[in-house]
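Pasting as-is:
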Amino acid sequence: MISKPTDKNSGQPAVRRVAEGRERQAPAPEVKNSAFARDVLAGLSAPQKRLPSKYFYDKRGDAIFQSIMNMPEYYLTRSEYEILDMHKESLQQLFQNGSGRFNLIEFGAGDGFKTKILLKHFTRAGVDFKYLPIDISENVLQILTNDLKQSIPGLQVEGICNDYFTALSQLRQTADRRNVVLFLGSNIGNFSEKEAMDFLGQLAEGLNPHDLILVGFDLKKDPEQILAAYNDAAGITRAFNLNLLRRINEELGANFNLQQWKHYPLYEPDSGEARSYLMSCVQQEVHISSLEKTFSFRAWEPVHVEISRKYDLDTIRRYASKSGFEVKENFFDCRHYFTDSLWEKI
């Protein structure tokens, strides 16, 4: 792992002046009113400071996350890839429900790395299906659909640029085929329980009876193994999390000194929550010019940036039943580290 930042002045008084940054141009007026700026303001103004993990992902963050997925400690991607590869024929039969047609709808498809396993298999098997990735970014969708048209000739693919639930509601009203929704990658684990139940409830409302969802859940296991996935020896996760502060510097005109911040993950086996924090190593002040505001941080004050919850099968069944679904089957990798759980809308 990249060596953790140390307080090089630990023998000095705790109070530090505002972190020094490069001279920056004043952000454009519209930046102050952006969702990013509003969320940073709200999060750093809260009694327990926080920053939304969705802002990890800019161009540099995307590249770092690709490296995370290849880390030896990060078992999640490999486990789910194994599941989809081992069980693609069973999933085909369940999705088709005999020989029926279906829409394969994906929330947050990204580059389609794992989904391509299913897309290639279904296309080669002559399955009558249409792949519909949904994203609010038209650019992301265009890149993905162009790639798929080249790499999987004959695939019916249509990107939908909209929010998940608006797009799903429109598909429900016009669908002449079954809808199958993919929500992979343990993205559900980034929600609190209330947020997860709200999300799944909205998802159920957007589907017809007997429609399906395939949801990725990271399972509870050895706590040391879980923690290692968020505290890798090469320091890639640290770089990924600190990239959020770099992004605030560049886009909102802040002067965070990244050397004065520490990546701090922990795992609570009882709740199943893996939490990540950015922790101020010294007492300091940081000015964000687009917000026209200076924020004070105590020495060793944590800023919460991510939750990644781990599950047991009882919790998965409870989530399904409380949100209007029935678990049809859980698909596991060989080590039972992960499951893709197939639910049917009641």
